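Translate structure to sequence.
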């Protein structure tokens, strides 16, 4: 048995002594259009191979996929069919039994970070700031539909919203593990009205990506959507070019609700993966942090509005777990 183990270990070494990894599987969640993510992350393959080589790893192939849902990436990590996942905090917490957080993303801060919806509207457009942030907010954004404009008018007049104001609106939300698209908006509804997304019934529509959510908002299929705070910056050009709106996204949309702060996205690894050894985790973490410092690397991770990465630990996401427990217990 010792001989067999030794032989297998030798087979995994390249001629120059590096540990050979035949395939590294990486999954991204569909928080942007899948085609955009695939295109943007293609350079990551060679960048990661080069960085991992410096730590003694010869990675032959890197397979990058975009999950059909946030949960699909979590399930892949849980099952070991994915080695690495770029997943938000909510998805990580749901699958933390099978996944281990490696890094937390840092993002550019925004020109406004206020709990008041009216403050966001008074200070449009929202712009990136030079500061780095490890958390972000979810915004509830009303669109150009008649009902969307009516509720925005109440907010901007300084009026307090009631459940009757929002319950009959058409809402776009994301899957239940999405912090910005479901979990924290549910907490906002509970905190503000004592209600949840489930109380919206058929008026809550699940979108498969934020791109499709904004397309629905622009067309008037929905009156309000739940999204991350800088989503309108990401969707600004598409609002006119793809969604056929004549006015700007800043003129036609308004914030009607602001959630508590949400801890940033994670880079997590599978506990079931045979590739992810303790030594490889260290090498991968260092590789991604170094890549994020390069101009080419910054272009890759910008698809998620990531600016860089810092080492993370499971306890960092205990508050996220508490948020999920509250959501589960809400009636």
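Result:
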């Amino acid at each position: 048995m010792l001989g067999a183990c030794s032989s297998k270990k030798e087979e995994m070494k390249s001629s120059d002594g590096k540990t050979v990894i035949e395939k590294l599987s990486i999954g991204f969640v569909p928080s942007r259009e899948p085609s955009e993510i695939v295109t943007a992350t293609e350079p990551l393959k060679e960048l990661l191979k080069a960085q991992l080589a410096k730590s003694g790893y010869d990675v032959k192939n890197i397979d990058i996929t975009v999950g059909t849902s946030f949960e699909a990436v979590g399930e892949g990590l849980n099952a070991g069919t994915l080695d690495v996942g770029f997943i938000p905090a909510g998805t990580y917490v749901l699958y933390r039994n099978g996944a281990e957080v490696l890094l937390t993303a840092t993002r550019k801060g925004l020109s406004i970070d206020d709990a008041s919806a009216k403050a966001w509207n008074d200070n449009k457009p929202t712009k990136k700031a030079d500061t780095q942030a490890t958390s972000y907010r979810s915004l509830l954004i009303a669109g150009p539909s008649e009902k969307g404009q009516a509720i925005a008018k109440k907010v901007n007049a300084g009026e307090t919203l009631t459940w009757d104001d929002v319950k009959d609106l058409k809402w776009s939300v994301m899957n239940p593990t999405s912090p910005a698209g479901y979990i924290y908006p549910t907490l906002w509804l509970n905190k503000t009205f004592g209600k949840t997304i489930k109380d919206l019934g058929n008026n809550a529509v699940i979108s498969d990506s934020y791109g499709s959510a904004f397309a629905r908002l622009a067309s008037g299929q929905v009156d309000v959507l739940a999204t991350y705070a800088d989503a309108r910056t990401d969707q600004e050009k598409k609002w006119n070019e793809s969604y056929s709106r004549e006015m700007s996204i800043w003129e036609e949309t308004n914030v009607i609700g602001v959630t508590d702060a949400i801890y940033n996205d994670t880079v997590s690894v599978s506990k079931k993966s045979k590739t992810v050894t303790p030594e490889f985790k260290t090498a991968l973490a260092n590789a991604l942090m170094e890549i994020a410092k390069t101009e080419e690397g910054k272009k890759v991770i910008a698809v998620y509005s990531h600016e860089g990465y810092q080492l993370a630990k499971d306890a960092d996401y205990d508050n996220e777990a508490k948020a999920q427990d509250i959501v589960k217990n809400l009636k």
